[in-house]
Structure to design on (366 residues):
């Protein structure tokens, strides 16, 4: 019985990633910390963590068949040796977003904001994993995770900049951008 | 910060519903019990429960704008005094279902199976609440809950019969049908 994969991000003074910067894009900040520990498997906040965020990955929510195939062809695995930079960007959307019907959310996400098409343009340079938190009663709805080589840092910033200008991002009410280097 | 509502169904020898029958439709059964306790708010399995199932409700996953409006116009509230009968039907779908893209799942659910249209035909007689469990690592993906007056029992059976004949139901790998009377 394979279940959706669980992940715990714990920030504190220990962990397999060094926290290079924490930028509060929208809403409340997260407390400062120097290291991030990423734990896969059972939800397991690190003892003494300053903050911990739990997520679960799983099935796609908006991606359609043709997009899924295109993504599968170019999506790199996590953990590539050269991808020593990472970003954890937890996001919370507004009640207005969640009250929309499925077709309305899809229209904003893709027809108006080209979220999927935009992401595809930055593959395979940037590996990505989306975890869901909303159903767990967590402070964020999504925990987005990215891995890239140092020379792709500017490219990643460009992708974020484009996404933050979209119609979809008008529904983002909390976003923190945590930049990391793998130790 | 309103979060999706949580619910805990605990079966045992105490609770606000009498268990009239438990029918295993597909897959593994649930252990027998005589009462069901429904708890809303924090997830809180009743002490000594034979089994407990946790769920979380929230935004719609397939319903489109026009359907959402139609549903809002005819969906009755839970807890109507005359609706003394209830059913808890936990459902688990196969990995094949969850590996489909969003448009493929929507096509099976509505274009081929008319799940939403079918349900609309039985409103306002049958009140319904869908809770999600998959993201919580629970044994079922959904906990479906229905409330109806005794005279609508045959109507409810008809709805279930129609749903179980659909293309969508070929992806159901576990289903238990628990019938209840409010005490």
């Amino acid at each position: 019985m394979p279940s959706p994969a669980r992940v715990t991000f714990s920030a504190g003074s220990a962990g397999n990633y060094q926290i290079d910067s924490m930028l509060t894009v929208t809403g409340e900040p997260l407390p400062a910390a120097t290291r991030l520990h990423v734990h896969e498997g059972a939800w397991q906040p690190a003892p003494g963590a300053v903050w911990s965020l739990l997520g679960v990955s799983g099935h796609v929510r908006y991606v359609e068949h043709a997009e899924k195939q295109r993504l599968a062809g170019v999506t790199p695995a996590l953990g590539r040796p050269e991808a020593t930079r990472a970003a954890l960007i937890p996001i919370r959307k507004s009640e207005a977003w969640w009250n929309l019907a499925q077709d309305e959310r899809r229209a904003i996400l893709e027809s108006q904001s080209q979220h999927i098409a935009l992401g595809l343009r930055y593959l395979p340079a940037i590996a990505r994993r989306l975890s869901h938190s909303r159903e767990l009663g967590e402070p964020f709805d999504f925990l987005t995770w990215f891995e890239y080589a140092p020379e792709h840092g500017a490219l990643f910033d460009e992708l974020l900049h484009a996404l933050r200008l979209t119609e979809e991002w008008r529904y983002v009410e909390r976003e923190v951008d945590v930049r990391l280097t793998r130790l």
Remarks:
- The radius of gyration of chain A is 16 Å.
- Chain A has a mean pLDDT of 95.
